[in-house]
């Protein structure tokens, strides 16, 4: 039980880091739309868009793992609401 709680904490921490990275990438990519276009700017915009999808994918994977751990935790112990 304690191992599952520790894994949940680790996954939640990773999800927070991914979310923060996602916000930074979105902000940087949108900021690049405001500058005059060049080959360098367009390549950075494309890299930003690719990074966005990679980070969203990693976040969704962690979310699925978190749900699996929570369901495993519910199987081990019955939760009661007070």
Strand content: under 5%
Major sheet size, sense and barrel closure: none
How far is the N terminus from the C terminus? 21 Å
Shape call: rod-shaped
What labels would you give this structure?
2 helices; single chain; mainly alpha; 82 residues; 84% helix
Topology of this protein?
Blueprint: H1 2-32, H2 39-76
Helix pairs in contact: 1-2
What does this entry look like structurally?
With 82 residues, the chain is mainly α. It has one domain (2-74). It is 84% helix and 0% strand. The protein has helices at 2-32, 39-76. The chain is rod-shaped, with a radius of gyration of 19 Å.
Q: What does this entry show, briefly?
A:
This protein is mainly α and 82 residues long. It contains 2 helices and no strands. Helix 1 runs antiparallel to helix 2 (39-76).
